[in-house]
Amino acid sequence: MYTPSVTTGRPLSAAATASRRNSTLESSAELVGRILLASLFLLSGLSKLGAYGATATYMSSAGVPGALLPAVIAVELLGSLAVIVGWKTRVAAALLAGFSLLAAFLFHNNFADQIQMIMFLKNVSIAGGFLLVVANGAGAVSLDRRSQLA
């Protein structure tokens, strides 16, 4: 199989071609994974803006002061956008992992209700995904990587 190198014009070895494909797959998976993981928080933050009063009331009913709602919205919106574009990704992912665990324990702690138990485990799983981002970083397609190369 003839695959010319972009830089030299000479053919790449099969191993180099496979390595390049794996790198492209890895970069794409990292980007799509970050988008999928963070999109829940982006949409949730936007919906809280649209239903501000109802959300503040719900928070209060769970014992969380409604006055914290602006901070919650900021964490969801800004944190999710940072993860999506890959800016300060490890910090944003750590923040959203903690946020997910806190939400699980505060709002989904009635394990007698199967739906609440599933919601709890969903939040814990999302926190696990964010911790993987903390451990591995944003990847090649990110603002973090661009700043490393500059």
How many strands appear in the DSSP assignment?
0
How does the overall form come out from the CA principal axes? elongated
Number of helices: 6
Order of helices and strands: HHHHHH
For the record, the count of structural domains works out to: 1
Q: What percent strand?
A: under 5%
Low-confidence stretches: none
Kindly state the percentage of residues in helix.
over 70%
Largest sheet: none
Q: What is the secondary structure topology, with strand pairs?
A:
Elements lengths: L13 H37 L1 H10 L7 H17 L3 H19 L6 H23 L6 H7 L1
Helix pairs in contact: 1-3, 3-4, 4-5
Description:
This protein is mainly alpha-helical. Helices cover 75% and strands 0% of the residues. It has helices spanning 14-50, 52-61, 69-85, 89-107, 114-136, 143-149. Helix 1 runs antiparallel to helix 3 (69-85), helix 3 (69-85) crosses helix 4 (89-107) and helix 4 (89-107) packs antiparallel against helix 5. The two termini are 35 Å apart. The model has no long low-confidence stretch (mean pLDDT 91).
Looking at this protein, list some descriptive labels.
single chain, 150 residues, mainly alpha, 6 helices
How would you summarize this macromolecular structure in one to three sentences?
This protein has one domain. 75% of the residues lie in helices and 0% in strands.
